[in-house]
Prior knowledge:
The complex is a heterodimer of chains A (111) and B (112).
Chain A: E1 4-7, E2 10-14, E3 19-25, E4 29-37, E5 44-49, E6 55-58, E7 61-65, E8 71-76, E9 85-93, E10 100-101, E11 105-110
Parallel strand pairs in A: 2-11
Antiparallel strand pairs in A: 1-3, 3-8, 4-5, 4-9, 6-7, 7-8, 9-10, 9-11
Chain B: E1 5-7, E2 10-13, E3 19-24, E4 31-38, E5 42-50, E6 53-56, E7 65-71, E8 74-79, E9 88-95, E10 101-103, E11 107-111
Amino acid sequence: GQQLNQSPQSMFIQEGEDVSMNCTSSSIFNTWLWYKQDPGEGPVLLIALYKAGELTSNGRLTAQFGITRKDSFLNISASIPSDVGIYFCAGQPSNDYKLSFGAGTTVTVRA
Amino acid sequence: DARVTQTPRHKVTEMGQEVTMRCQPILGHNTVFWYRQTMMQGLELLAYFRNRAPLDDSGMPKDRFSAEMPDATLATLKIQPSEPRDSAVYFCASGLGRVRAFFGQGTRLTVV
Lengths: 111, 112
């Protein structure tokens, strides 16, 4: 089963708004990854985080690796219609290569 | 443009038939993952390999699923016999060590 708790499950936002979602784990991770999936496609990697406290941006996306190493968040600034999709967090523990996924956050943008 | 290639993209089969899904990882990547995605369960890790050796296949139903890497350029996931509950999208992803994992476009399997 899933080790990661991702929230919120879904969100409706107005174009231009900022979006925030987060992921928590019961165990310590060495790597946090954020993906976006469009219908009929595979997940596409957005941001990768490898160090506690790390803050990384990719255009309008910003993600942080929590200090406790048990959480991460993703922010999308000034949302646009093409931000619609499902966003997944994924984590890799320190003693394993296993990559586990959260249940996803479905983002719908109202124009 | 390096990418993970999965074949077939779509497969419809009758219950009881054998299904084989193939994945060509990105050249040079040494870690390969197989995931199954359904509405109910989300992305479930079925198995993963490092340097072609299976590290963990605890996510797979052992009696009917098998995963192999005959060589560094090919990973296979086989279901025999297939059942309707196996209907899902199956994804392969590859990565290099602890670096990011890249996904293929998936195989949409329908078992009738």
